[in-house]
Amino acid sequence: MAQTNIRVSELVNKVQRGELTLPEMQRRYVWPATRVRDLLDSLYRGYPSGTILVWETDEEMPTRELAVEATRMPTTSQKLLLLDGQQRVTSLSAILSGEPVRVRNRKRPIDILFNLEHPEGPPSDVTEIDDNGFTTNVEDVEDEETAERDIQKEMRKRTFVVASRALKNDPIWVPVSDIFKKTDSQILKSIGVSSEDERWDKYSERLQKVKKIADYLYVMEVLEKSMSYEEVTDIFIRVNSLGIKLRGSDLALAQITSRWKGFINLIEDFAAKFNADEDYILETGLPVRMLVVFATHQSRFRTVGKISKEKLEESWKTAIDGLDYAINFLRENAGIDNLSCLSSPFLLIPIAVYWILKKNEVLTPEEEKKLLRWFYLAHMRGHYSMGSSESILEADLGVLFRGKSLNDLIQQLLLHVKKFNVDTDDLFGRGIRSPFFSMLYFVLKQNGAKDWWSGLKLSERHTGNAHTIQFHHIFPKSLLKDQYDKKEINEIANLAFIGGKTNRQITNKEPINYLEKEVVAKRGEEALTTQLIPLDKKMWEINNYQQFLNYRRNAIAEAINDFMKKYEQ
Fold first, then answer.
1. The domain boundary residue, chosen from 420, 437, 462
2. Which of 420, 448, 467 finishes a domain?
3. Residue 5 β-bridge partners
4. 105-120 burial string, b = 16+ CB within 10 Å, else e?
5. Contact 327, 342 (CB under 8 A)
6. Whole-angstrom Cα distance, residue 139 to residue 166?
7. Does the first or last residue of the chain, that is N or C, have fewer Cβ atoms within 10 Å of its Cβ?
């Protein structure tokens, strides 16, 4: 195996000339915005950043394009397939060439900004605000002016940040792509800094340091031409297994594609049918897991290398049939708008398996109710998050493949989670990462809760910033932070679900000052009762926050238990 040093700029050039592509076994670009930011920060400081692994081959191999398109003609016949380093190379190629950087969990391309006034010394650890919907990391607006001021103050501690509208308007933040396209003079004069300005030298020096990222040297290891695709696949799997960079489903995918050319395209075509859930389906490795389940009647990937291509092809047809049903069942029958609300992607698998096992029979209303009961209980109790998820799934699959009933599946669930009924202890101190949080959303949504301004029923299918569902602190954090700890402030019992515009209008008002005048007066008491908020105005006062929490914990537990009664026999 040869080894050479290669500059970032030359890696980017190879991508632009189409001389560096991906083998089919590679998954697609999946980095979130913060990883792109942190990569630039590491290279700016000259920190180690791993190696690049490629395979030079003259053979015609099934390949995939990188997320950054080639725009120039090749200057050599040499073809390199990128085995390790895709996420870094793609990010740097987009940044240095000024192309849109499209990352996971963002609908629009991102910009990375450089702070001309960054502090000296090691990087600062600062939490950023993500403006996605409530199922990821919701921006919870209190007092907009104060919140924005605080965010900008914290961001100034960073050298690189993911761009926001507020920061783009601040002249000390420069888009990194501009630094590679423009001269220092063009950048500095555009923000009102002339050569006579005392900041000129400092800013110029820092801009030059950013540009030197293009000269950063990676060690590139090159696998020999004589190696076969199967041998290279084995190396890819071993490298990623040792580095714990890829999940089992990704490594299994590499093994399958080494024998079944074009398989990865089938997976992507399948996932694309589900629009907003496409990324979730791909990133969780569900299609590969489902394929293995039907090929082997167990869920682990240890035997995937021994499954014949014929068996893989046969099992794939069954797998997509089962997943089609499971996803549609959760969307339409369980009211799940967004699969990322689920406490585990494994929840889809028993539903898919049961459907396939029952395929030639009618699914009765009683069976539908039992499936829904199992799903909601398994979700909110974090069934696949307690212990070894694969072992738990294995046991559930054993129940189904041995031909036992949904009653047996539910009984096995009870043995694992210990209880089904929800009480206040289950909710005490629980926040947005608890499955009870999304369970509350499911219950409120199906019970007809609506936004307090638009009157729209809760749904993650809403479009537009005004209507995108956010979680809202009924008692704003800024009013509680001096008296209560974070767990009490961010508890589920202090959260309601409303649209973005409503959240911004309320800002950091005390409940006593907005619930009556801005909610009840305009939308009626039902607007509060459907969100399980007490009508007793005394509980809307800051001094009675603990009483409010106790009331709402009880109300939430009762609402969930009443909701689940619909699915009991």
1. 420
2. 420
3. 219
4. beeeebbbbbbbebee
5. no
6. 14
7. C
